[in-house]
Amino acid sequence: MKIYFDENMPFAHEFFSGFGELVPFSGREITAEQVADADVLLVRSITQVNAQLLANNNKLSFVGSATIGTDHIDLPYLAGRDINFHSAPGCNAVSVAEYVLSSLVVLSERYLLDLSSLTVGIVGGGNTGTRLSEKLAALGIRYKICDPLLEQKPQDLREFSSLTEVLDCDVISLHVPKVTTGDHPTYHLLNSENLANLRDEQILISACRGDVIDNQALLALKQLGHGLKLVLDVWEGEPKVLEPLIPYTELATAHIAGYSLEGKARGSEMLYQALCQHLNLKVTHKLTDFLPSASITFVELKQDFSQILLNQLVKMVYDVRRDDAIFRQQLSVEGFDSIRKSYPVRREFSAVTVSSSPNAYSDVPHHLGFNKMSN
Ligand SMILES: NC(=O)C1=CN([C@@H]2O[C@H](COP(=O)(O)OP(=O)(O)OC[C@H]3O[C@@H](n4cnc5c(N)ncnc54)[C@H](O)[C@@H]3O)[C@@H](O)[C@H]2O)C=CC1
Ligand SMILES: O=C(O)C(=O)[C@H](O)COP(=O)(O)O
C-alpha cells in the first residue's frame, strides 16, 4: 500500500509506517502525476483535493485531512468516487483558543485593559468556539456566542446571541468555517457595512479563514483612521497577504493559531485512527507514546488569581508576540509558507504542570488547561 502524506504532518512515520510505503510530498506543489499510484492520501489545508489532483489515480480509497477546515476538499467529488474521507475535527481547537487568550493578554498589557471587564463575542460555537468559551469562563471573562446552525439544534442548550449582538462585544473572535453557499455563508461575513459599525476601542481577532473578513474593506477602514484593534492569523488569498494591512494590525501571524505540537499531532493521530477503522485494523499507537515532554514542566506560583496564572502561562508557554515578530521580519524574506513550515515547537498549557500553594487556583476549573500538581 502506498501512503502519500504532507511533509508537514508530525509523527507521520510513527503512526503510518506500519501500513506500507510512505511517500512525503510538499502540500502546495503536489501534482496529479505524483499521486497517481496512491492508495491513501493524507493532506493538510494547503492541498486542493479535487478532480484535477486525482485525475490519474484509480486506486485511491482513503483521503485524510489533518485539519479542522475542509474547504480545500471537494467532498461531493470524493463521495461520487466512493473514496472514504476523514478530517480531524477538534484537533487544534485548544491551540487556537490559547492563541486567542495569548493575544488578549498581550493587548491587555499594551492598552492597560482589565480582561475581566470585557465581553468576548465568539462567532462560531463549534469545537474552537466552545474551547475558547470554557477557558474564558474559567477566567471569569464574560462571553456571547453566535452560531445560527447550533442554535437550531435542540440538544445544544447554550444561550446564543445574534451576529449583531456579538459584533457589539468588546472583543470579537471569529471561529467559523469558510462557507460560500447556503443560508449562513461566512464568506465576507465581515464586510464594509458591518465593519463600519464597529467602535474604535473594539478588538477583532480572526483565526479561522481569511475570506471571512473582506480584507480590502478592512484596509480601507483602517486607512480612514479607525481605531479597531486587529489580531489577524489568517488572510484572504493565502499564501499571499494584503501587505498594506500588516502595519495596521496589533498582532499578525502566518496561519499558525492551530500550530501547537499537540494540535498538529492530534490531527495525525485522528487520521491514523480513521485509517485503522477503514482498513479494519486494531489501533496500536497513541499520541502520548510519541509526544516529548515539554521543556517547561513546572511553574511555581503563590497567588490565587486565575488571570495572573494566565499571564504566566502565556509568558512561559505561548507568547504570540514571538509569532508576530517572525511574521513581520520574515514574510518578505522567506514567504508565508516557509514561516509555517519552519514553525518552532510550541506546546499547549496542558504540557505544563503548575504547582501552587495548597489552596491556590482551587477556583480555576481545569478548563484553563494546565495540570495542577497535587500538594
Ligand atoms: N487559524 C488556524 O490555525 C485554524 C483555523 N481553523 C478554522 O476555524 C474554523 C472553525 O474551527 P472549529 O470551531 O474547530 O470548527 P467547527 O466545525 O467545530 O465549528 C464551526 C462552527 O461554526 C458554525 N458556523 C457555521 N456558519 C456560521 C455562521 N454563518 N455564523 C456563525 N456560526 C457559524 C458551525 O455551526 C460550527 O458550530 C475551521 O473551519 C477552520 O477553517 C481551525 C483550526 C485552526
Ligand atoms: O485545521 C485547520 O483548519 C487549520 O486551519 C490548520 O491549522 C491549517 O494548518 P495547515 O493544514 O495549513 O498546516
Automatic annotation (TrEMBL):
Cell compartments where the protein resides: Cytoplasm
Catalytic center residues: 209, 238, 255
InterPro entries, alphabetized: D-isomer_2-hydroxyacid_DH, D-isomer_2_OHA_DH_cat_dom, D-isomer_DH_NAD-bd, Erythronate-4-P_DHase, Erythronate-4-P_DHase_dimer, NAD(P)-bd_dom_sf, PdxB_dimer_sf
Pathway info: Cofactor biosynthesis; pyridoxine 5'-phosphate biosynthesis; pyridoxine 5'-phosphate from D-erythrose 4-phosphate: step 2/5
Binding site for substrate: 45, 67, 259
Enzyme Commission number, as recorded: 1.1.1.290
Binding site for NAD(+): 147, 233, 258
Protein known as: Erythronate-4-phosphate dehydrogenase
Annotated source species: Colwellia asteriadis
